[in-house]
Specification:
The protein is of the alpha+beta class and 319 residues long. It has five helices and eleven strands, in the order H-H-E-E-E-E-E-H-E-E-E-E-E-H-E-H. It has helices at 2-14, 18-60, 144-154, 223-232, 268-271, and strands at residues 70-73, 80-81, 89-96, 100-107, 118-124, 161-162, 167-169, 172-180, 185-194, 209-219, 234-235.
Length: 319
């Protein structure tokens, strides 16, 4: 019995206490986490060096970022084009808004008046990205105050006289004003708002408005030559949604076409694009009788006497 108690006491003395077990566990964990802590410190130090080096590289230089939404696009992407043979397009500046796409189509300028000839066109519709929802383009209606302010900005200091004539092109009516520039310059400012009157989409309605402005000065120009630009320009763009329809329903053909007594239509290649009137008839050719020249009698040819010869009988003329 005493020997068994002695063995039990020895085992109790050699077994580690709970506090000793906890201390050993903590020391093992510390040794295990010490390499990971050193690795984390090394990674933080490496990231700091990279940031410092990157900041030094950026501070040394680099192209500046232009804080504007206006960009230059190729001339083939112009939303408005003059007629072939008209003013040459030399550049296009495009600005995107949340509700509109605006372009300044710059045209060749041959005038002494300061300023740039250009179409200023705005397409109101669903624009894709590149701007925030708060960047909205205001839709300026054709009021006298708005047009006067626009003309003063486009042609400062010029006395512009709005025309009272009713004019229209293939997209509808438009207005214009004329004024004298420097030297022999004649300047025109024209405006047009394109919005359909007859709906195509009855349920959803037709969305979309086009706003067109033209500032043009040219030396030695006439009113007709400047108006030709507005008559013959072409809209060269659109938005894809079917609900975007600023033109409205197209007009039907004239009911007088194909009927007896209808209008006379001539080929545009021969008489122009109007086809409203025939060319003036050519003057009738008059035949003028040329004076007949009498050639002198040749030698040896018989001559006819003008009076009776002596010694010959007189013969009366035949009845």
């Amino acid at each position: 019995m005493r020997d068994s108690f002695c063995e039990t006491d020895k085992l109790a003395m050699t077994r580690p206490t709970p506090s000793a077990d906890n201390a050993a566990v903590h020391r093992a964990r510390a040794r295990a986490t010490q390499p990971s802590t050193r690795g984390f410190r090394r990674r933080v130090l490496a990231m700091g060096c990279v940031l410092v080096v990157g900041g030094c590289v950026t501070a040394r230089g680099g192209p500046p970022v232009v804080a504007t939404m206006a960009i230059e696009v190729p001339a083939v992407e112009a939303l408005v084009l003059p007629e072939p043979g008209g003013p040459r397009v030399i550049g296009v500046i495009e600005t995107r808004f949340a509700n509109a796409l605006q372009q300044e189509v710059m045209l060749a300028t041959e005038a002494a008046t300061p300023g740039q000839n250009a179409f200023d066109v705005t397409f109101f519709g669903p624009v894709e990205g590149r701007t925030g929802p708060e960047n909205l383009k205001s839709d300026t209606f054709l009021t006298d105050e708005a047009i006067s302010e626009e003309m003063e900005q486009a042609l400062p200091g010029l006395g512009m006289s709005p025309s009272t004539y009713f004019v229209q092109n293939r997209y509808g009516p438009f207005g214009y004003a004329l004024g004298r520039g420097q030297g022999r310059d004649l300047c025109m400012y024209a405006w047009q708002r394109i919005q359909g009157q007859d709906r195509v989409n009855v349920l959803t309605g037709d969305r979309g408005v086009l706003s067109v402005r033209l500032r043009f000065c040219q030396s030695g120009a006439s009113e007709a030559s400047l108006l030709r630009i507005m008559y013959r320009y072409t809209i060269n763009g659109y938005f894809l949604p079917r609900s975007w329809q600023p033109y409205g329903r197209p007009l039907p053909a004239s009911p007088e076409l194909g009927r007896i007594g209808g209008p006379i239509i001539y080929p545009a290649e021969t008489f122009g694009t109007s086809g409203a009137s025939a060319p003036p008839p050519a003057p009738a050719r008059t035949l003028e009788s040329a004076p007949r020249s009498v050639s002198p009698p040749s030698e040896g040819a018989p001559t006819v006497p003008s009076a009776p010869l002596e010694g010959y009988p007189t013969v009366p003329a035949p009845l």
